[in-house]
Design a protein that fits this description.
The chain has 10 helices and 12 strands. The chain has 371 residues and is of the alpha/beta class.
Length: 371
């Protein structure tokens, strides 16, 4: 267990409701972008039966600018590694945008510092619409709300092109776990404060923030074991080293398809269509929320007419049945949000994200001082 860091966390922040997402890490020098190898097509999941109902596609309006120009290539900078949920969704989007816009759209993976490297690189590019990048809540705000990360950007540095997909944090246990419901788990952690261990991927990223918010809203304490990514966090739980995994459905998909785990609940306001029958925490009387919302941004200064063409094309793809079906194979749900609403969500979530970041950093520093 050399790669893990066990952090005991005590919830101390007043109750706040939350629908968001995240990503975090140490600031690192930007690597040279390299185009990742095409991932193999994910197998259709065995468990989900409910189809994602996408909104009726909206036609792309007539162009008022010569964009994109024939012979040019549009690049999507992916914030994470090849093969992850974000990368896989980006490649589906890129293929469909290529058909929609009539020019090549490529994905370049640029991981580092939880996405901070990629967004810094985006803002160094020309604001002409030919380079865009992923944007996620709560990941993007975390980068500049944590002063230790020294981000060179804020919300105002970007032009929002809308959100296209979403995944809630889920509470998953092994199939042989004694906990059959969230209430079973809650009763046990209340009876044994600080003794139960859960897996999360990363430090102050979405799964970690989900565990923090669960403890905050329920007044409970349990040990958080931080792994560097989803697969080892899941492996630790399956191996009995931790008893629960706070993670995304996409990250849990191998175990879901193999019928190795049971999902007790999702941290969202609404049920997750790809996990039929799994209750929301809200429906159980627990007002704890943590959902990653993903979309795209362009650099500030991108002409409105160009941003409008990109936004309309992204909307047409994101609201299509084809896109929904392809993402459903990876347990990712399509949820389109227009640019104006996406910006409003971003602004509203900033103070909540800041409180959770401060809470997590304080607890981590406290744990590090212990002998």
């Amino acid at each position: 267990m050399r790669r893990l860091l066990i952090v005991g966390i005590v919830a101390t922040v007043a109750a706040i409701s939350l629908v968001m997402i995240a990503g975090c890490g140490q600031t690192a020098p930007a690597p040279s972008p390299t185009k990742a190898a095409e991932p193999t097509k994910a197998a259709a999941p065995a468990a989900p039966t409910a189809a994602v109902q996408a909104a009726k596609p909206t036609e792309v309006p007539a162009k008022t600018v010569d964009f994109p120009a024939k012979g040019k290539t549009i690049t999507i900078i992916c914030l994470m590694n090849a093969g992850g949920s974000m990368d896989l969704a980006d490649r589906v989007m890129a293929d469909m945008l290529t058909k929609e816009l009539g020019v090549p759209v490529q994905v370049v993976d640029m991981p580092g510092a939880g996405g901070q490297v990629a967004l810094t690189q985006l803002l160094a590019s020309k604001p002409d619409g030919y380079t865009i990048a992923n944007n996620t809540l709560p990941a993007t705000p975390v980068m500049y709300l944590d002063p230790d990360r020294k981000a060179t950007f804020t919300h105002d540095s970007f032009v929002n092109l809308g959100f296209d997909n979403s995944e809630p944090i889920t509470l998953a246990v092994r199939n042989d776990s004694k906990w059959k419901t969230v209430q079973d788990f809650l009763a046990d952690v209340k009876a044994h404060p600080g003794e139960i261990k859960v897996s999360v991927s990363g430090v102050l990223v979405t799964p970690h923030l989900g565990a923090l918010d669960f403890m905050r809203t329920t007044g409970t304490t349990f040990g958080v074991v931080n792994f560097d990514s989803g697969p080892p966090a899941l492996a630790a739980m399956l191996g009995g080293h931790t008893e629960m995994d706070f993670d995304f459905p996409g990250s849990l998909s191998p175990a879901l398809k193999g019928n190795q785990i049971r999902v007790l609940g999702v941290m969202d306001h609404q049920p997750y269509k790809l996990l039929p029958g799994v209750p929301t925490l809200e429906s159980l009387g627990i007002k704890s929320y943590m959902t990653v919302t993903r979309g795209f941004v362009a650099p500030k200064g991108t002409p409105k007419e160009v941003a409008d063409v990109l936004s309309a094309a992204i909307k047409k793809v994101a609201t299509s049945q084809e896109y929904s079906a392809k993402l459903a194979e990876m347990y990712i749900e399509t949820r389109y949000v227009d640019p104006a609403t996406a910006d409003k969500m971003w602004t509203e979530q900033e103070p909540i994200i800041k409180q959770l970041v401060d809470m997590g950093k304080a607890q981590i520093k406290g744990a590090q001082k212990q002998p």
